Fold:
Amino acid sequence: MNSEKIEIFDTTLRDGEQVPGCKLDTEQKLIIAEKLDELGVDVIEAGFPISSPGDFHSVSEISKLIRNAKVCGLTRANQKDIDVAAEALRFAKRPRIHTGIGTSDSHIKYKFNSNREDIIERAVQAVKYAKTFVDDVEFYAEDAGRTDNDYLAKVCEAVIKAGATVLNIPDTTGYCLPEEYGEKISYLKENVTGIDKAVLSCHCHNDLGLATANSISGVMNGARQIECTINGLGERAGNTALEEVVMVIKQHNHLQLYTDINSKMLNSMSVLVSDLMGMPVQPNKAIVGANAFAHSSGIHQDGVIKNRETYEIIDPEEVGVNASTIVLTARSGRSALAYRFKHIGFDVTKNELDFLYREFLKVADMKKEVNNDDLSAIIEKVTRKIG
Ligand code: KIV
Ligand code: ZN
Structure:
């Protein structure tokens, strides 16, 4: 089968760090950047160099360190931002400048007090200027999700002519429906002259919980880069979660797409970012949450014990988790109990299990989870009774 590659653009260190209450120092950013490079991301957006001296320093140090991934710095569409980004990226082996401007009517009117023609002109000038420093220039049309497709196509055409090699189509406010976002990408593919010279990129926010679905819809309609963050961290409700899009693509061969991500590192990558950013991962988070491979109801446990595939679509080892877990609760059945007893060294008979199960339920009704110490105590109690 002829699969096509989806480039993974990680923006944990830029959009992800915009999470309220999060601050990483340069040392921490270097640790994350190095691990992202090892994970196999294609682009690391290292920061927004003009935003602070600290951010400039981080982008500069990351540029010196990273040998595989492209290192990218964000700018607004003005010369000063671009000068500073180019300077911060000076030591990068594969530098990319990511410049852009708001294109929705709301951004044009309220942020820039401007008009559509002027926005195109500023976009073109920014791309041309960035091109004087680097070959690899990505352009973002901020709030593209709420920009009408006809105007968006004009913006894209103009910046491609000016030299942009990647076109970022952000759903900045997380507004689009998957079908709508996919149609936007498809419209640009069909209506922008010169589109074959540029890669379309999805950058989706999660305000309606649709960031992953929208990004997947984007690549199903021709985008070839996804911008995402570890654990879906980012402004407000966050960005597209890297681990989710990578596993959707991996689990759905029929899409005929692939990424270069080493999925076995996803769990440890998630733990690292969560620890350094001080942002706990919600237990039910897809792929990397503590409960992503935990089974607690009797029916599910019985199925998983018989064959993992009954209730798991991913082998936990594929994402770096040793094994799925059987959590004992008052909802658990006999087979889960026998399984866990076996696990701690007690091979119980069917008759013994009946006694044990009754005792187990008494304990389980008083606790959220029955642990191994509880199981040993139950064994001891029942042995004394029977003995
Ligand atoms: O969400 C967005 O529009 C952005 C751009 C600055 C790329 O993060
Ligand atoms: Zn964003």
Remarks:
- Residues 294-384 form one domain.
- The chain has two domains: 4-277, 294-384.
